[in-house]
What we know:
By secondary structure, this protein is an all-alpha fold. Helix content is 76%, strand content 0%. The longest helix has 28 residues.
Amino acid sequence: MLQIIFNNCWPEKSRGKENVKILSSLKYFLFPRNNHWLKRTFLVFAFIFFDYFITLIFCQAPHEEANLYARGFMVSFGIPLGLTLFVLAANMPIYMTLSLDSHIIRLPSKIAVVTEFLVDIIFAWFIAGLHFSGGTSWLWSAPQLTRQTAGMLLYLAMAFILVKPHQPHYND
């Protein structure tokens, strides 16, 4: 499957029609296919940016950051630039995966309801929960598991209201 996409992205001969084909193939990596996936992408990144902005506001020295990779970027490039580079590098694969999946995956409605709910559970725990926990760690001294669970429940509530994984839309 990836071979087909990469062959479409980088043709051997560059001519007018093939340049248009390259640009249309890049949309697979840059833009989610329909509003349903775009809402999910915005929701996931709302939690990521919450963590980013709270850390940017409250972090006065790199040693205050608990994430060792983010701390390394902050030490090397300074707090604002290091944190920004880390967030971009760490989360670009998530964005590209969401965008690519929105173009490739087409499931029957009954299977999509279960699959998308499981995808939201995974995003809720591993992305939203972790970023919510990281962002709120500056403000709330609750245990990490409590903060992560709160972030997961908040994500799932927002996904149920905004994204509606129980009503998948593949007709866009």
